[in-house]
Amino acid sequence: MFGLKRRPSPSRGAVVPPYMRELYRLHAGHQLGARLERAASRANTVRSFHHDEALEELPETSRKTARRFFFNLTSIPNEESVTSAELQIFREQVQEAFENNSSYHHRINIYEIIKPATAASKDPVTRLLDTRWLTLSYTGSRKWPTVLDGQLSP
């Protein structure tokens, strides 16, 4: 079934992301938001990826505020195309911004890595997919859908 040779046996510590539970409820017949229904209607497979902490070490930089989160999509078969992606971030407010009544923001750039960094070139070749701004006084989860129309290569 589903091209699997045997039934998967998830580990006891496996955590099912809330988004995947929402999708299950949608397909089980429960009504959810229109945004989730549109995303689910265009796909026949849904995958969830956690960021790969091993790839996130930044070389020494003058800007200490930069953070990188990598999601390894190489497990997606070449014959499949990615039609949309969604980045979900949970963060707590930066207390100093709240106390100073400031409107500081974090800029979040979402890139596709076209070609990884090599010994000859220290920076990867990337393509900017989306840019969003996050107010530092915000606490909670944010979702940024990125419609790709099959452009993202696994």
UniProtKB/TrEMBL annotation:
Residue intervals of the TGF-beta propeptide domain: 1-139
Q: Which UniProt keywords apply?
A: Cleavage on pair of basic residues, Cytokine, Disulfide bond, Glycoprotein, Growth factor, Secreted
Going by the entry's taxonomy, the superkingdom of the source organism is recorded as Eukaryota
User: Which PANTHER family does this chain map to?
Assistant: BONE MORPHOGENETIC PROTEIN 2 (PTHR11848:SF143), TGF-BETA FAMILY (PTHR11848)
Q: Name one GO molecular function term.
A: growth factor activity
Q: What protein name does the entry list?
A: TGF-beta propeptide domain-containing protein
Task: Recite the lineage of the species.
Answer: Eukaryota, Metazoa, Chordata, Craniata, Vertebrata
Extract the Pfam families matched here.
TGFb_propeptide
* Gene Ontology cellular component list: extracellular space
Under InterPro entries, the record lists: TGF-b_propeptide, TGF-beta-rel
Q: What range does the record give for the signal peptide?
A: none
Report the subcellular localization.
Secreted
Similarity section: Belongs to the TGF-beta family.
| Primary localization class, coarse | secreted
